[in-house]
Amino acid sequence: MKTVNKTLLALGIGMAMTANAADDRYVIQVDAEHKGVVKALAKKLGGEIHAEGNRFFSATFSGKDLATVKGLLNNPHIQLIEEDAKRELMGFSDDVGDPRTTQITPYAVYQSQANQLSLQANSGVKVCVIDSGLDRSNDDFLWQNITGDNDPGTGNWDQHGGPHGTHVAGTIGAADNGFGVVGMAPGVDMHIIKVFNASGWGYSSDLAVATEKCAAAGANIISMSLGGGRPNSTEESAFKAFTRNGGLVIAAAGNDGNNVRTYPAGYESVMMIGANDANDEIADFSQFPACTIIYSGKGNKNNQQIIDTTCVEVTAGGVNTLSTYPADMVSASVLTADGQVLGSSGMSYAAQGNVTGSSYYMGLGAAIDPQARDKICLIDRGEISFNDKVMNCEASGGIAAVIVNNVDGMLYGTLGAETTSSIPAVGAALEDRDALHSAATLAVEISGSDYGYMSGTSMATPAVSGLAALLWSNHPECNGTDIRQALKATASDAGASGRDDYFGYGIVKVADAHQYLLSNSCSAKPIVDIQLTTATYSGKRGEQVELNWSGASTRKVNVFRNGVVITATANDGTFVDTLNNPYGIYTYQICEDGTANCSDISSVTFN
Fold first, then answer.
1. What distance lies between CA 210 and its chain's CA centroid?
2. What value does the mean pLDDT of the chain take?
């Protein structure tokens, strides 16, 4: 899957989880008919009016505590005066710090409850990562627990073919070792299959071979942050066999933000994963294909069954995900105010550097200001481009620029590939504006790092793979289908009530899944293996497609053409579909009547 690769590292994003009271803003409850009188009194005593309701209003009394305000507003029409408590966005954030020297727990670990469950290291659970390789230059892995297969076409498994595979592996199993990041299942056994060539793509047959290699290596889980638009029966047969033998296959839904089904995620034997952000919102890029629906009953219309294994089943954190990179392949930003590390995000295309100095507030940075010479420019977001702000800072003699967001949250930005700036520049969160303005000394650093951010369902997929391994290590008696069901049964409902196409059953909560399995025995039913073949020939009434199948157990089966049921027919192993002037690709599938047991998709082509 493609990723939105934020090539500059934002370190130390602070949590905004608590509700604090403002020092000088209060809510005054009043008799509705006398609200105007009390408001006038509040204004006369220096109050600034804010929100108003039918029987209350809020007001700021600068520098006055609650007792003082109560003393000033001594009026019989006032029922209550209380502090106007702050309410902030409830979300999850990465730990504060620099992963080169401090261990960082990414937000998705907290969000998914992975910090509440411990990996049972001797359980034998192993994750097979089919991707672009894992680079040995990153020390944040227990390398004695990692194996792989070399390929003459793609090279050695422990030499990266780009940062994607190393980032994915870190999300699954980066070690709990005092530095870097922590994976969902820290130190879990992994087997690496490098399938991507130098151009960043491979074939469905490569995945089928890789699946066999994963099985041979003793893997329980296959993790694939990849996909394409066309199904392939050979590929699907390999995944189905892995699942039938007790494994779990997990793949990314896709990053085009539409309802197109991609493969291998779209196969029933593969668990499709979507992405959410730190605030439990769906990622705008996360694809949301509708589930396949089987109609049965009289005329195939009376009953319908949703096959929830052909659409997004669960989601996990996949927006601005911090994980491992090959050595110095990404830049890191560190921002401190009087020695306190604050959240920051290096501007794309900003220069590297490490500077310390006093700050100078340049407002919006819309003009050159000589007073900024030899200082770090503190600039508000708005009106002009980030590049223009930084260039004005540099032209003023400034040694670095910190651009503060004008809405809640971290500021991610770019100077653009055409910038000529030679000073480091970072974005900062609005929540840290006061700390930045009150600091006597600021420090800004942008330098090479082994840790960086990516976004995509490619990042959510290894998160769920690691969570599945974490859960499975605590329940080795289960099989992959049991683990899959437990993750769905206990996911936190998000979006529309109940299962929906965006979140599936919701955001994974692995500690809840653990409790679910403690209360429910593992009793997954084996997958029915329906084999389907297709052949074409010309007949008197048009082109004909002959379907032959075996393995179905119901009295009738449903025949699907291009994802739509065309008939229910006797389960006698054969059916002929007649087409008038067909052109292009036609896909066929046989499903047991009234169940979700289906054959692989078989395709025919007419030119």
1. 25
2. 89
